[in-house]
Amino acid sequence: MRLAVIGAGAVGRSVVELAGEHGHEVVAVADSSTAIVADGTGGSGGEAVGVDPDAVVARKAERGIVGDDDPADALAADYDVLVEATPTTLGDAEPGFSHVTTALERDRHAVLANKGPVAERYGDLRAAVGDSDGQTRFEATVGGAIPAVSTVEDIEPGHVTAVRGVLNGTANFILTRMAAEGLDYDHVLAEAQDLGVAEADPSFDVDGTDAALKCVILANVLSFGAVDDPADAREFTLEDADVSGIRDVPGSALRLAAEDGRTVRLIGEATGETVRVAPRLVPENGTLAVSGTQNIVQIETSHAGRLNISGRGAGGPETASAVLGDVGRLE
């Protein structure tokens, strides 16, 4: 497959670096202000060849740009799959949503690492797919390398009653450290920021927004996948989620929980009817008590019982592996 990668952050760069190992060729890459388009795919002409992954990544690191072309040139290139890896935005989910619909209007496929279009405009996205010969996939939007979406699809959404789990590594790292060392939230947050586990502004993670977006995506998959007519499905957005974060979890609560053989984790849960994210007590040695930045997804099924899938829920190579897995499913 020929890939156009839109977004040159950690995920986009990793897709560029790893695509060749999966048998794919990157023919265009764009960041927010520049692009590089391979010859013969919308560039200066000639036989189509892919871009040089090492050169693209090095140029981004050294100069802050990927090339000398315009980002619009990457969208117009001759690719099979558009990889949408720009930062997640809420509300209208732009510019990611327009990038994806541009690909679909050209009957190209789109694979998303960007949560915005799937969490905030799922109905619009499905409508655009319905008018196109292209498909969309978005495994990378939920749990990094964990195959949550594809597992739900394989079981069939109508046979899945709920999906829950620990879906944010930053929040989980903080709660794990608080429990292990008896420290308060502010102390561990500062430590996480020093280690690069938490952003300078950690709101997206510690307030539960990131986990909620992932649960909204899962709720949409469950809701739309369980009905024959999309008009009968309920569409979820972030506004439909009941969300509480971890800022107000005191160290004393974790110490008391430990005395009872329990601990606290930020648990998200999605069904075809509700989305909830909140700190919850879980057994200290239970399945949901994953430690550090690990994530876990727990799938409740009608006939197969409970399935647990754990792994790295974030990171450039981890998320890129999910993106490239989706590309493989399109072949």
UniProtKB/TrEMBL annotation:
- Enzyme Commission numbers on file: 1.1.1.3
Q: Which pathway?
A: Amino-acid biosynthesis; L-threonine biosynthesis; L-threonine from L-aspartate: step 3/5; Amino-acid biosynthesis; L-methionine biosynthesis via de novo pathway; L-homoserine from L-aspartate: step 3/3
Gene Ontology MF terms? homoserine dehydrogenase activity; NADP binding
Question: Where does the record place the catalytic residues?
Answer: K214
Q: Which Gene3D superfamilies does the protein's record reference?
A: Dihydrodipicolinate Reductase, domain 2, NAD(P)-binding Rossmann-like Domain
Task: Cite a single Pfam family from the UniProt record.
Answer: NAD_binding_3
Keywords in alphabetical order, please.
Answer: Amino-acid biosynthesis, Methionine biosynthesis, NADP, Oxidoreductase, Threonine biosynthesis
What family classification does the UniProt entry report for this protein?
Answer: Belongs to the homoserine dehydrogenase family.
| Name of this protein | Homoserine dehydrogenase
Gene source species: Halorubrum ezzemoulense DSM 17463
